[in-house]
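Re: zinc ion structure - here you go.
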Amino acid sequence: MSKITCKVVQDLLPLYVDEVLSDDSINIVDEHLDTCEQCTQFAENLKESPVKIQPAENADEAAALKKIKKKLSKKQIKTAALTALGVIVLAAGLFYGLVFMEWYIPYDESAVCLSDDGRALVTARAHYCCYGASFLPYEEDGTKFFYLTTTAFSELTWNHEESGLYNVDSDTTLLKEIYYVPREYAHIIKDGFPMPIATTEERKVKIEELKSVSVLVWQAPDSARS
Ligand SMILES: [Zn+2]
């Protein structure tokens, strides 16, 4: 067996401790350790705190990988943010559509009719009345125009069996007639007549036009007699 120096053994010792040496190499190191206290001590130290060998290339690769991961996660964050934004916009649209978007309720006797004594308007879909009914007062001839709207939310959640009243007797104007306005004219009740036709004469013409296309749902008993 050729003489082997401490330097060579100490080069081999990290691999020896990691148990990756061939049997021949192990035998050589063992033989040396039997006779050399310095190398034995070196081996002991290695076992206690093993040296981790990390080639420079690996460090570079790790850095590159880290960079790619960072880029990827930036992209992922962007995608996630856009997705979240999309979901929020969709939810907001859905919320608006459900809660605020009003749908005109076409006239029929299940939507609105007269009470038995003829002194009140009964809406079978009571709750719509709370916010959906509008009157266009035209005090001069005692006419009012009326329509109902609903939202998808109230359609879904409110009990339609209950009925609500619009008490005609409690109206302080000299009410003579109530009409139910068709869909195409509902905006006039909501927004009023546009200013260019807001003179009294033009209003009267418009009122007559509204009457002619609307459904008469209530009439004052005395005016019916006359
Ligand atoms: Zn030695």
